[in-house]
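Severity: low
Component: inverse-folding endpoint
Summary: output formatting inconsistent between runs
Steps to reproduce: submit the following structure tokens with default settings.
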């Protein structure tokens, strides 16, 4: 196994690593809803549909409300 000829100091190591920085993810604004979302990712709109590039990929399930009958004896 290879061994370094001399030890690299903390300062030299940290100087080299100063350029390794995290970048903020790129976001876009949905033209229909005005919400921000990650680019190249599907996102949910206000109705709950899964949308990618303006097209609905998965429609939201419709909620059916069941009315209870109050005339029980």
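Observed output (run 2 of 3):
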């Amino acid at each position: 196994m290879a061994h370094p000829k001399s030890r690299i100091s903390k300062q030299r190591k940290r100087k080299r690593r100063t350029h390794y920085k995290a970048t903020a993810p790129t976001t876009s604004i949905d033209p229909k809803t005005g919400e921000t979302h990650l680019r190249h990712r599907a996102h949910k709109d206000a109705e709950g549909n899964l949308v990618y590039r303006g097209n609905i990929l998965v429609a939201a399930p419709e909620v059916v409300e069941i009315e209870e009958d109050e005339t029980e004896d």
